[in-house]
Design brief:
- By secondary structure, the protein is mainly alpha-helical.
- 65% of the residues lie in helices and 1% in strands.
- The chain contains 17 helices and 3 strands.
- It starts with a helix and ends in a 19-residue tail after the last helix.
- 39% of the residues are buried.
């Protein structure tokens, strides 16, 4: 009984960590950390012995180097903007939380990697259902956002019937990438030997998450379609996506869209026009990347090598007039900082390549890392609490870990820890 209760609290801690939401002005990763502390405290007083390895320190050390990076480049300029320094300090906290979440899953589950991936998908589906309901039921939306804080823009989007962010404080392209990654992860978890009920549940979860991509942002749509189209032409060992599942789920989803649009098209016309805008009018997609739109965001600092130390998110400093993450990084730290940023990501990639984990978990991390990099073409994807960062950290902690024992008395508790 106590193990089931701890698992419930572990699920809650993962939800409060993974979803970047705020309750009455307090970020929920604080609550996640508190739950993790009490679970670890209980483990300590009940005699559990925890063993750590050097791989467990890779992610925190990476984030600590990120702090040094932000302080160094801020100190080169008289403005000394502290916003990115605070963000980097938060990344250290998130890295430790992600490590302990994966760590505790190994304590209380036998197949802990599968367990935490299922937890991630369940949480994504919960948020997805909330996204859908907030669009369809204004009364539910009002009650939810009385408790859960949300960006004022999200309320405007819900009122216009265009999109929703669910429990996320911010939505948009970051949430759409988050949902697209969960669809891909769920497809990679599919097994031919699963029961029919589990297959139906998997297809339902894929449908919910795929629908939520369209009502959150369009970047995730392009990313998901690109990955799935490429996987059609790759052998299974290079994609880990079942071709039969991909074709079946795509056909069912298209059928579902046709039925919904033909039945409720007039009621959700705003959402349909917005979600499929680029597909209906390719000229708009071309114009988005034209000189008068996308390219105007390519602005550079005075010091192209070391940047101007401006992140553009401080109340007393003028905002950098660009939505591109790469430009934000260059403006803050110059080309040298951008190179260091990519070098750090390469080191993360190489550490996973050389780990003793199964290839499927490595591939999940690779795809998330790819989305993280591509996302910087649209928004600022740094290591802060925005959803994709938490997912990337959890997948890294899963992919970096081999099958060493994290508890001295793990075997003794095996019967109690069955998943």
């Amino acid at each position: 009984m106590i193990y089931q209760l701890i698992r419930l609290f572990l699920f809650l801690a993962t939800l409060l960590f993974l979803i970047p939401m705020s309750l009455f002005g307090v970020s929920t990763y604080y609550f996640s950390g508190l739950i993790i502390f009490f679970i670890c405290f209980y483990g300590g007083i009940t005699g559990k012995s925890f063993v750590f390895t050097k791989e467990d320190l890779y992610l925190p050390l990476f984030c600590m180097s990120y702090v040094v990076f932000s302080v160094f480049y801020a100190s080169l300029n008289t403005t000394f903007e502290t916003t990115l320094i605070k963000v980097s300090l938060l990344s250290v906290v998130l890295s430790f939380l992600s490590f302990f979440l994966v760590f505790l899953h190994k304590v209380y589950y036998i197949d802990y990697k599968k367990a935490i991936l299922k937890t991630i998908v369940y949480i994504g589906c919960i948020n997805g259902l909330i996204m859908i309901v907030t669009l369809l039921m204004p009364s539910f939306s009002d009650a939810l956002y009385f408790i859960v804080d949300t960006d004022p823009k999200n309320l405007v989007h819900i009122e216009s019937g265009r999109r929703s962010s669910g429990l996320f404080y911010f939505g948009g392209s970051i949430l759409s990438i988050f949902n697209s990654l969960l669809v891909i992860i769920l497809m990679m978890m599919y097994r031919e030997g699963d029961s029919n009920i589990r297959k139906i549940l998997n297809l339902s979860a894929i449908g919910i998450l795929a629908l939520c991509i369209f009502i959150s942002g369009r970047l995730g749509v392009f990313f998901m379609l690109s990955v799935l189209m490429i996987s059609l032409f790759l052998p299974y060992k290079f994609s880990y996506i079942n071709k039969k599942l991909l074709i079946l789920s795509s056909a069912l989803f298209l059928l579902f869209l046709i039925v919904v649009i033909s039945t409720y098209g007039d009621n959700i016309s705003v959402l349909i026009n917005w979600a499929f805008e680029f597909f209906q009018d390719t000229d708009k997609l071309i114009n988005f990347f034209s000189d008068s739109n996308y390219s105007r965001m390519f602005i550079f600092p005075k010091d192209i090598l070391f940047g101007d130390g401006v992140y553009g998110r401080h109340s007393n400093i003028a905002s950098v007039d660009s939505d591109l993450g790469f430009i934000q990084i260059i403006y803050y730290s110059g080309l040298s900082g951008l190179i260091l940023f990519f070098l750090a990501l390469v080191l993360l990639y190489l550490s996973v390549v050389m780990s003793g984990s199964k290839r499927i978990y490595k591939f999940m991390f690779y795809i998330c890392l790819l989305a993280f990099i591509i996302g910087n073409l649209k928004d600022i994807y740094l290591f802060t609490s925005q959803g994709v960062t938490q997912l990337l950290m959890l997948l890294y902690c899963v992919a970096i870990k081999s099958d060493h024992k994290l508890m001295v008395n793990y075997e003794k508790n095996r019967d109690q820890c069955k998943f």
